[in-house]
């Protein structure tokens, strides 16, 4: 592999790595040579098998990021495994689909806690460690709803706008300290998150008709962007939100 993109010798912490986009990005980083620490809810996951089948090294940590004591603990546990974390992908996220007037307090706060508050706390904890060693790559997972309001997903849209804000504000502070903070904004991806809208024929057709590539994205579609933003190839890229969306944002 072109050395600029190599992650040989690097250690990556990926949240929500047990399936979907997190699993796809974890596999991408492993293919580029990184040791991956995947954090997720307890339960079955085939990420370890998949990464080991690629010849990669994978460590699994169990975490429930709805508990805001967990990010600090997770950061400590992850750093303890090899003594370092060079790459952080804040991917774990949830969504609640309901008209705003029917939202419960939990529909608001649980999404904000996982998608926004836990993201900041993990950035802070791992960021401190990266600042100390003078280098690091943080990749936050944003969304098309970092730009748009979406339909009946108000806490998700708010949290994803916040992810873009966290990314830009930390980039302003940490770019001079060797820590690159960027985000990936996936487009409409065929994962659990979008199953309800893919199961609604009208919504599915209207989304597909707006995607210039004419298809839903897959976890593999994020691998190139993740490797780029995790590697030396992006050393002069800071505070950027990279849309990987088959053209959605321009359409
Ligand atoms: C929606 C979708 C989005 C996607 C994705 C878009 O209802 O508009 O579910 O929320 O999940 O984040 O990038
Ligand atoms: Ca607690």
UniProtKB/TrEMBL annotation:
GO terms for molecular function: 2-dehydro-3-deoxy-D-gluconate 5-dehydrogenase activity. Keywords: Oxidoreductase. Its EC number is 1.1.1.127. It comes from the Bacteria. Transmembrane segments: none annotated. It is an enzyme of class 1 (oxidoreductase). The keyword Oxidoreductase applies. PANTHER family: 2-DEHYDRO-3-DEOXY-D-GLUCONATE 5-DEHYDROGENASE, SHORT-CHAIN DEHYDROGENASES/REDUCTASES FAMILY MEMBER. Belongs to the short-chain dehydrogenases/reductases (SDR) family. NCBIfam families: kduD. This is 2-dehydro-3-deoxy-D-gluconate 5-dehydrogenase KduD. It comes from Aquibacillus rhizosphaerae.
